[in-house]
Every structure is written in C-alpha cells, then in structure tokens.
Amino acid sequence: MKMKYVVVSGGVVSGLGKGVTASSIGAVLKGCGLRVTTIKIDPYLNTDAGTMSPFEHGEVFVLDDGGEADLDLGNYERFLDIKLTRDHNITTGKVYQAVIDKERRGDYLGKTVQVVPHITDEIQDWIERVSIKPVDGKEGPPDVCVIELGGTVGDIESMPFIEALGQFSYRVGPGNFCLVHVSLVPVLNVVGEQKTKPTQHSVRGLRGLGLAPDILACRSTVPLEEHVTAKLSQFCHVPISNIVNLHDVSNIWHIPLLLRDQKAHEAILKVLDLQRIGKVPREPKLAEWTERANKFDKLKTPVKIAMVGKYTSLSDSYLSVQKALLHASVAMETKLVVEWVCSCDLEDSAAKETPEAHQKAWKLLKGAGGVLVPGGFGDRGVQGKILAAKYARENNVPYLGICLGMQVAVIEFARSVMKLSGANSTEFDPATPSPCVIFMPEGSKTQMGATMRLGSRRTYFLANNCKSSKLYGNASSVDERHRHRYEVNPEMVPELEKAGLSFVGKDESGRRMEIIEIPNHEFFIGAQFHPEFKSRPGKPSPLFLGLIAAASGQLDLLLQRSCGIASLNSTPRCTTNGTVAPPVKKPYTAVKKKPLKSLVNGYYANSNGIQI
Predict the structure, then answer these.
(1) Rounded distance, CA 227 to CA 547, Å?
(2) What one-character DSSP code corresponds to residue 510?
(3) What are the pLDDT digits (tens) for 78-127?
(4) Does residue 513 contact residue 488 with C-beta atoms inside 8 Å?
(5) Of 218, 254, 409, 603, which is least surrounded by CB within 10 A?
(6) What is the mean pLDDT of residues 493-521?
C-alpha cells in the first residue's frame, strides 16, 4: 500500500492543541487497524530544541537515539505507544544545514541554490525518507504518516514548509494526502455568541498559500451550535460532515473519542481512500481509551504531589513529568493534585525578600503526600531544591528526584548526614572542597548543543531487594533515557555509602551512578535518568508508580506484586516501558461531562497547583 499522509496545520492563535489533535487522529487511525507514524515540523532556525529555555518552548523531550525534540513528540509517543527518532522532528535549521552541506559538496552541480526548489525539495525528500521508518517495533513501513506543522498559518518562518507541503500534495497524488486545519471559534463575552470570522480568515489565508483544508477541526470551549457549523461549511468550502468540533473536555483521553463520535475517521479515510478492508468498513476500536477516560473522571481519592522546580510558572516545562504522574495516579486509582512549588521561594533569602511567597511555598510542601524534584540546569533555585530533599528525608516523606533532583539529594545527604558543609556540585561551585557532583569527562564546555549524555542507556541493579528493582519487576537491568552533563563523583561514593546512602543502580562500567535509595526511608529514590519519557497511559513508569503508591499509602501492597503494576481492585499487569532489559551478567562485582473552563490539554487550576 502506498504511504498516506495526514497534515495537521493551525490557524488564528498558537497553543490550540495541534499536538494533541494530531496524536488523537493517529490514535483513531491506529484503532482502525492502521500502522501510524508521525513527524513534527518546527519552523524555528534552531537545529533542535536542546538549547532552548523551557520558558521559550516548554520541555525538551528526549528520544531513544538521543534526539532532543519538541514536546509534541512526547504526545505522539504516549498516544501511539511508538518510539520516534531525531529525524521525526524537522526544523528549519536542520533543512537549511542539509542543503548547505549538499551545496558545499557540489551536489547541485553549479546551480543557484534557492528556497524553491532546493529547500522545498529537501523538505519533501525528508518527509518521504522518514515516514517509511517503522516506529512500532514491527517490520516494514507504516501505513499512515501524521505530520504536524508547527506555528500558525501566516507566520513568515513557516512559508517554505507550506509551499513544500503544497507541492508534496501533488507529488504523492490524490487519495494520499489529507489536510486537517485546526482553528479557533471564540466566544466574545460582550456578544455571547460563537464567532466564525477568525476561522474564515485563517482558511482564506491557507488557500491563498496553495493549500485547501479537507477537514476543519474547530476548537471551542463548548460544543458548536448547528448554525455555526453550517456557516463554517458555507464560507470555508468544507462539507459539514468534514467539520469536527474539539470542545473542552475533562481530560485529553476523551479527544480520540470525540473524533470517533463525530465520524472524523470516516472523513479522513474517505479522503485517503482507506474506507474498507476488503468489503468491511474500518471502525476504530477504542475500548481502552473509553475505559481510561471514564476511569479518570470517576477518581475521587486525592493524592498531593509537590513539584519543586524553578520553571513552575509554565507547566509545559515539566509536561512529561506531569503525564507520568497522571499515568501512575490512574493506575493506583487516585486523583492527582500537583502543587507547584517554586524552589526559589523555599530558600532562606525568600523569607526576607518575599515572606508571603516563602510561607506559602513551605505550606504547600508540608501539605503534600510526596515530593518530586525534576531535572534542571543552572544554580537558580538549587538551594530550595536541597531544602525540599532535606525536608523529605528528615520527615519520612516520599521523595523522587530526577536527574538534578537526584544530585541535590546527594548534596543534601553529604551536607546534613556527613557534615560536609561545603559539599556541592562543581556546576554551582567549581571550587567546592567536597565535589559530590562533577562534570562528566566526555562532556564539552564550549559546545552546548547535543553534547550531553543523551538517549537510552542501560542501568544495572546491584541489589535485588531494593525498592527500585522491585518496582521494575525484579529486573537485573533496565533501559532509560538520559540528559545530563554532570554526574555523582565516583570518588565520593564509598564515603556516601558508608554513611547510609545506597547506590543501587549503576551503568555498565560500575563508575556512573544511576539510582540512589535510602534503605530505611519510606520511599526516597533518585534517578540520574528521566523515567518520565517512557511512561505511557497504560504502562506507567515504575518509579512514578512507586511515588504515587507511597504518597497514597499503597506502597507495601504494590511491592508485593511481582509485576510492579497493580491497582487495589484489579489483577496486576506487567509494565514494559522503561524497557526492562534481558538478564545480563553484571560486568562488575559489586463519560462526556459538562464542559469545563480549561485548555485542551486537560489541566485545571487547583489552588496554586494543577489538578490533572
């Protein structure tokens, strides 16, 4: 079968939820029995997202091959349970670099290199080359490639991509290309009616650039009225049957169900000429999505997790961490409440400069059932993270430290337990007398992009009776994704272990520390890797599952289950995310609800926190 392409573009404003829409379209098509892959196009000039601030673009999502990508690739992987590569994220920087490299080699045979045709051809060739890569663990190319075009129609930087996609629709031919345009239908409070003019202008602009939408996906706070849909059909030249309304829902797992209920799959499959398997119509099988969405809506028992970081003013900075917490909380049948705690507000200096914020931060921290310190870079707010780790350790509060969160736990332990008051990371104090955390020998201090320890690496468990190993199903090793420049100083490990800190997971050399635990603590685990990147809705990350279980008083029951995943009223199921590696000899001795006022990603304000 010839490859089919579904392109998802956006209009009017950014942040409409194109990524969730593209992921949901993929989920519905997968439910129809098709093998689906995805590509994200980001029109910025950066080669990748690796050097971008979370405040600029949200989190950096790390792939198995070490690619640092846009957070939407995380949505694709979670919704479709696939593994993408760095090439599935196309940026202007990558395309221009590829064209310039070809020009330097003389590949263009003396031609004048121009945006059209050379840049546009490179974009099309890239899409065709990457779309045939299998991403679901099976052999052979996928059936459908869903392509999300980042940004908004009319942006200057996206013009070459729109031109390329226009040409691409002719290259692949009729029946192989479907354009879904996501737009906004706002309600002005003054008038109180749904306005179609922004979408009309957006579609007109898209047509002027050579692309005509096959399907309109209209975002709104409440369901569209019939006359509004009819008006959109008339003025945008799109059949009513091809207009889909994505109104606000209680959680994003309802979005594939919304698409199915409005027969979006029929419209897409008709455009792609994929309506039937033989003589049988394709119908999406989404029983798991229905069960998951309804189960979420019925959760009542709250579990509070304090998220202590410095990017807390933008929740997308920790998107994968939030999703991993959500997956774990649903598995443990608890309703997740994330309390955002700015680490700077916990510091002693904040008591004088911003006393109210300081008091509120500590109140939130002490009111939480568990503490999570995610990854980060730079020294701002680090002292607050150290204080959070100290509070959790001294008060037997469940703690999970990820990357920097593990490093600050080691620093705090050295300072408080070993009485090394000057203990620190050389990232924050190059002259520290007790360097608990040091710069990795193979790292680069001059080049920032793609020079960290990135991608999937194997961690070997040293003790079978540790909590981490039990959570991973008593595995001897596990593969997880990394993103760091600094690591625990191996020269200080013997002293730290002698003082009571256990290093239960290491890399293949035995010198790189991967997992720490405090044995006599309820739940105190730090991981150098990022387990959140492999968490899936039906297969939560074991470490996040442990945190939620400990915070909700279910850890003992969970650890008794041999598979590592269980709910109180169901049969335990094994997890395969955070890929458990085969045994290897160790290389060293040692229901539709009333629409809510929310965003499509399903986060709702709860005090200063987020209820997911």
Answers:
(1) 49
(2) S
(3) 999 999 999 999 999 999 999 999 999 999 988 999 999 999 999 999 99
(4) yes
(5) 603
(6) 94
Pull the structure tokens for residue 377. 């870079």
Annotated active-site residue 403? The verdict is yes
The pTM assigned to this predicted structure is 0.89
Task: Assess whether 532 carries a catalytic annotation.
Answer: yes
Q: Which of 68, 266, 522, 532 is catalytic?
A: 532
Known active-site residue 342 = no
Instruction: Identify the residue whose tokens are 């045994």.
Output: 583
Q: Which residue out of 403, 487, 517, 522 is catalytically annotated?
A: 403
Query: What DSSP state is assigned to residue 63?
Result: P
Across the strands, what pairs with 154?
A: none
**Residue 232 CA from chain centroid, whole number:** 33
Give DSSP secondary structure letters for 324-350: HHHHHHHHTT-EEEEEEEEHHHHSHHH
Q: Give the number of C-alpha atoms closer than 13 A to the C-alpha of residue 150, restricted to the C-beta side.
A: 18
Write the CA distances from 376 to 60, 338, 406, 600, integer angstroms: 11, 18, 11, 26
Kindly state the tokens that stand for 170.
Answer: 């002719």
Q: Is 191 helix (H, G, I), strand (E, B) or coil?
A: coil
Indicate the DSSP class of residue 151.
Answer: S
Write out the H or E segment, with its range, that includes residue 6.
strand 4-10
What is the mean pLDDT of the segment spanning 530-546? 95
Nearest-5° angle of CA 350, CA 356, CA 357? 60
How many CB atoms lie under 10 A from the CB of residue 478? 28
**Catalytic residue of the set 88, 181, 327, 530:** 530
Could you read off the pLDDT of 397-439 as tens digits, one per residue? 999 999 999 999 999 999 999 999 999 999 999 999 999 999 9
Tell me the Cα Rg of the chain.
25
